[in-house]
Amino acid sequence: QVQLVESGGxxxxxxxxxxxxxxxxxxxxxxxxxGWYRQPPGKQRELVATITTYGATNYAEFVKGRFTxxxxxxxxxxxxxxxxxxxxxTAVYYCWGTTDYWGQGTQVTVSA
Length: 112
Fold this sequence. Notes:
Order of helices and strands: EEEEEEEEEEE
Largest sheet: 7 strands, mixed
Strand content: over 45%
Low-confidence stretches: none
């Protein structure tokens, strides 16, 4: 059974930084692409960034230049470095892995 466990969320002031981690355990063989989604209050879940096994990345327009996704295959962990945070980045952030594996979510709150 595959488990994705996020950590690193919290409260930060606008302009600050946070780094999220997602550790994968269990039978990870089927997982290729991984990524981060987020769900702002009262809104639908949206894609933030993805990364393939070989390190190719893709970002939503609203985080380009501010967020960086990375992975450490030896540790079965992916990361999301979030810089220049804005209040509109406030959301529950979810780790995701192909095809339909999800973490429990971690809250990120950015105060003005």
